[in-house]
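Problem 12. The chain below contains 492 residues. Write out its predicted structure in token notation.
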Amino acid sequence: MNGTTSGGGLRIAVVGGGIAGLAAAVRLRDRLPPDTTITVYEQSGDLGGKLRTGSLAGSTVEFGAEAFLVRDPDGGDSAAVALARRVGLADELVNPATGRAALAIGDELRPMPAGTLVGVPGDLDSVAAVARPAAERDRDGGGPLLAPAEDPTVGELVRRRLGDEVVDRLVDPMLGGVYAGRADELSLAATMPGLAHAARTESTLTGAVRAALAAAPRPAGAPVFATVRGGVSRLVAAAAATSRAQIRLNAAVRELVPIPTGWRLVIGPTREPELVEVDAVVLALPARPAARLLAGVDVAVGALVGRLDYASMALVSLALPEGALSTATSHAGGPTGSDALVPAELSGFLVPATEGTLIKAATFFTSKWAHLRRPDGTVLLRASVGRYGEEHLLQRADDELVSAVHRELAALLGPGLPEPVASHVQRWGGALPQYAPGHLDRVAAARTALRTAHPHLALAGAGYDGVGIPICVRSGETAAEEIIKVLGVSRA
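Solution.
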């Protein structure tokens, strides 16, 4: 294949077949003339990136991203929901049966406090059962918490205003569940943009939390998350089909070369490279492989993109016999009576790093999602292991990881926890971006440089704009819109 088209239409390359790249391909198809050739190049043998649906004990389970936010901060449908509607999956979206989660502290489950923003409280009394805020630190100094360009780590700001326990027991496990990272190393602006924005006008952290929550209201009773019945890989397949793109799997792009008419892609093995010429490129790769390609285009841009580090993790899925969670109450903490925690009624739990466990989070699939419940009562759950800087803990065989996860679950849920009837270990090496302070400025500088010197190349993906399916979808769509604007041609 040489990249030419008999009709002489536009030729667009999307490098990277994750959900950002596929969302870009759908938007390009919707907006560019019908004779446009869109080709998605994916170096692995599968589309979807970190979206991967598999099977465990005869049930469909997620081995990657599990769900997505239903709403955008502005209150409308999230980009993931909009994409699902666009590709014909509107009627296949389902919401959790329960959103009640817990924190695992001191070998017991404690209720997750309500009304926080990624664990940061707007009301200190709401978190008193889990952490003791240093309320005296959050004094009103008469001016904004942050200067206009200031970007501290999340931990730096919250420790200064509310003390260590709020960070260690609430914020850090919340961020660990999303990023596998640590609050003391993650940029506030990149990971909690709403709070960062409010902190530039509010004079207390609790006030900034309340302002950020008020700026993104959610109707009472409205679901927060959704997934696709049958697995999120259906979204991947539907997006690929809707884009009508040529899909090239096992096709590693090794070099991007600017040419007068656009770009030349060098694909495949060094000895027998394939050369493809296109009019424009959406580069939807993780930061490190993207940086290697960009280094040959603009050394400074490659260096900016390449500064991003990543965390590795593993997802250990277990199928347990009927009743495995319904009898696991002996270690459940919280108040007695109707509010006592029953694991079978929880969506899952988070574990602070200070607990010293391998597990950092767990999801009880068959409790959280009604459509996954089985007639035979088999319990499906998944534990997330591995935090940033703890890659050495993942260097053990799959069966050892399964045994370690089961031991830790038994310590929390009760020693009678039955052995799994099936298990699966999914390793994600270098999967989750670790946005250090200044990340957004570096991305903005890289994009500005490319728009000036190479406007027919746009960046998309979690390495730039944030994690989560909606953000990645929006990132891909935005990159596609940039290309469409530069080409100056759109569907009538």
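Discussion. Confidence is low (pLDDT under 50) at residues 1-7. Students who got a different answer should revisit the alignment rule from Section 12.3.
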